[in-house]
Amino acid sequence: MAFWRSKKTTQNEDTVGQSQSASAGETANDANDQVTEARAAEPTSRNTSNETPAAPKPTSGGLFSKMRGALSKTRQALSTDIRDLFKTEGRLVDDEFLQELFSRLIRTDMGVASAEAIRDDVATRLKARVVSLDEVLDTITQQTEAMLLQESTEIQYTDSGPTVILVVGVNGSGKTTSIGKLANHLHKSGKKIVLGAGDTFRAAAVEQLTVWAGRIGCEIVTGKPEADPASVAYQTVDKAIAMGADVAIIDTAGRLQTQSNLMQQLEKIRRVVEKKIETAPHEVLLVLDATAGQNAISQAQGFSEAAGCTGIVLAKLDGSAKGGVILPIREKFQLPVKYVGLGEGVDDIAAFDAAAFAKALFAQ
After folding, report:
1. ∠ at Cα 198 (197, 200), nearest 5°?
2. What Cα–Cα distance (Å) separates residue 70 from each residue in 65, 107, 168?
């Protein structure tokens, strides 16, 4: 898409507002009070760097444990369904068994193509043999891992200056919460973060992101209701450069009237951040709601085409019995799944790991 690298500018882009920094010593109550002020002003920045983040929940012991907990609903449904195929200690892998297995895999929302691939792999390895439940689950796990393998889940950081990340997705997908979790994750790894509340058409999103910034202890740039999102994006990158931040994470509108409007707004956001940093944005992350199942794919189609996405964040994985949807998502978009949401806490996000995911999905 050539327009992503257009050097055109508009009058609105040259007339962005000035950012203002609030006191570093404001309290959590002060931050909440200033949300109202931000909604009545042009894009401003608020320094929340001295606020104390919310205490994280204790972890249950490693990525596999977190994945296993998040996928418990899917695993319980799968385990029950596949276990039902084994009325005795062993089962002959014949055409009848393979058809029944296929039907049960489909129930996880992994889609026809993925279920067929797993069924066919089981047939290749085990057909005409009497096998145990454990053998079948092990085979399915190996094939699922192979289907989910990807080159890298790492954020592609720029060599110099702040890395700019745009986050897109439909309203209700968990976009704003995912931004907060990602910001906290990167902050805890030692990165200096600036948030940009670019979903200016939804006051609740601005307020929610402001609260996240207060918990984490990072800067946030906001704008008045229905302010130009590109102006907020510009101010966010400008602030990130001025304070020597490592990462600028910019929220974008989750609901637009038409695909044309979406294209135009995202084009403008890209163009204004490019004015500040020629290679930006460096990542465009698409947030998908795991609980939406197959609907997540259709809901995200417009964003994936319009935004030039570089990766996926799969949110609300812990609330879904349809965790298999990650397979058709990978197949459909050919994008790496970079992060998964594993719960409601600030620390409940993790870089995606194909082996841990596949094992957690089918573990007994």
Report:
1. 95
2. 9, 18, 23
Lookup: tokens for 138? 């092990």
Residue 155, amino acid: I
Sheet architecture: strand order including 337-341: 44-46, 219-222, 193-196, 247-251, 163-168, 283-289, 311-315, 337-341, 349-351
Q: At which residue do the structure tokens 């089918």 appear?
A: 362
Query: Tokens 């990978």 correspond to what residue?
Result: 330
CA-only gyration radius of the chain, Å: 22
d(CA 175, CA 358): 24
pLDDT 10s digits, 240-267: 999 999 999 999 987 665 667 777 888 8
CB of 349 closer than 8 Å to CB of 339: yes
| Terminal Cα-to-Cα distance of the chain (whole angstroms) | 46
Omega before 162 cis (within 30°)? no
CA distance 293 to 323: 8
- Report d(CA 118, CA 61) in Å as an integer: 30
Smallest CA-to-CA distance from 338 within 119, 122, 148, 75 is with 148
- Measure the CA–CA gap between 112 and 199, rounded to whole angstroms: 36
- Over 70: is that where the pLDDT of 100 sits? yes
One-letter amino acid of 326? I
Where is average pLDDT lowest: 4-18, 239-253, 289-303?
4-18
Which pTM value belongs to this model? Answer: 0.78
What whole-number distance in Å separates Cα of residue 195 and Cα of residue 211? 11
